[in-house]
From TrEMBL:
It holds the Pfam family GGDEF. NCBIfam families: GGDEF, sensory_box. The lineage of its organism: Bacteria, Pseudomonadati, Pseudomonadota, Gammaproteobacteria, Oceanospirillales. Residues 177-311 form the GGDEF domain. Residues 86-138 form the PAC domain. CDD domains: GGDEF, PAS. SUPFAM superfamilies: Nucleotide cyclase, PYP-like sensor domain (PAS domain). This is diguanylate cyclase. It catalyses: 2 GTP = 3',3'-c-di-GMP + 2 diphosphate. Its EC number is 2.7.7.65. PANTHER family: DIGUANYLATE CYCLASE DGCM-RELATED (PTHR45138:SF9), REGULATORY COMPONENTS OF SENSORY TRANSDUCTION SYSTEM (PTHR45138). Signal peptide: none annotated. Residues 11-72 form the PAS domain.
């Protein structure tokens, strides 16, 4: 204790009163012996271990969460040897077996020859701060997920579609695999909204999205709302015939759902038109795949709707 006071050139009694009246836990380690020459009595109220049980650096190491131990010890030893002040966050073991988050702020003390003589520092309980940080990170992840999600149907939105298609295009080009893209349009959807109302139209979009999502069998395939009543499917490592099979499965599932559409020009049930495009990229951009699928979707609609065009 006197050594710390001397280091800071203050009266020992005043210094001790100041240190032991704070929630921060002061400590000092002799570098040559790696033993504690002092640790504040607050350590017992925080962790449950008595002040006198902190004899050496081994006690500090052993009372650290195993998952944090190597990272923190290696970092602190390296920084201390280099004579660099530092700080580290880790989970400290309490006497009751639970853990609290600690931040150790460390100052390296050198002698007149410039050699490391001691480490002095403070331990801070940052458990509440960590809880707040984790809550903030969780909220950020939720917001990020929402930013890639269509608000009405819950499937991927155009932003995620574009980024995923870009990544799959690059992967297909690198590996020489086919990539397929399906553009789907709900037939006569304006008439559906006019006849049943926009709330019913929104419900119809949600039902179609659910049906399409249930028709996708592989985790890597992506369903997205392209815009309005249009949906898109990205199918990595899928050739034309396999993509047509996916399209047929989606179309059949929508037909089986038998969603009434009395205002349709072609059926008394909701139907869809699809354009399917497949490429094994060697150059260009994924925009060409979208344009090709869109042209085939247009041809499907021009040919009477309720059909799939693949070439």
């Amino acid at each position: 204790m006197n050594d710390i006071a001397a280091e800071l050139n203050v009266d020992t009694t005043v210094y001790k009163a100041l240190l032991e009246s704070t929630k921060a836990i002061p400590w000092k380690i002799d570098w040559e012996t790696l033993r504690f020459s002092y640790i504040g009595p607050q350590i017992e109220s925080l962790l449950g271990w008595s002040q006198h049980s902190w004899a050496s650096i081994d006690d500090w190491i052993e009372r650290m969460h195993p998952e944090d131990r190597d990272r923190v010890v290696n970092f602190c030893v390296a920084q201390s040897k280099a004579g660099v002040d530092h700080e580290a966050d880790y989970r400290a073991l309490k006497a009751d077996g639970s853990y609290v988050w600690i931040r150790d702020v460390v100052h390296v003390v050198r002698n007149d020859a410039g050699e490391v003589e001691a480490l002095i520092g403070f331990m801070f309980d940052i458990s509440e701060r960590k809880k707040s940080e984790e809550k903030l990170l969780r909220l950020q992840r939720e917001l990020e997920e929402l930013s890639y999600q269509d608000g009405l149907t819950g499937v991927a939105n155009r932003r995620l579609l574009d980024s995923s298609l870009e990544a799959e295009w690059a992967s297909a080009r690198r590996n020489g695999h086919p990539l397929s893209f399906i553009m789907l349009d709900i037939d006569c959807f304006k008439q559906y909204n006019d006849h049943y109302g926009h709330l019913a139209g929104d419900d119809c979009l949600r039902r179609i999205a659910h049906i399409l999502g249930s028709s996708i069998l592989r985790p890597r395939d992506l369903l997205a709302r392209f815009g309005g009543e249009e949906f898109a499917l990205v199918l990595p490592e899928t050739d034309r015939e396999a993509a047509r099979g996916v399209a047929e499965r989606c179309r059949a599932a929508i037909s089986d759902a038998a969603i009434p559409h009395r205002a349709s020009d072609i059926s008394h049930l909701v139907t869809v038109s699809m354009g399917v495009a497949t490429a094994t990229p060697v150059s260009g951009t994924p925009a060409s795949l979208i344009e090709q699928a869109d042209r085939r979707l247009y041809r499907a609609k021009q040919a009477g709707r309720d059909r799939i065009v693949t070439e």
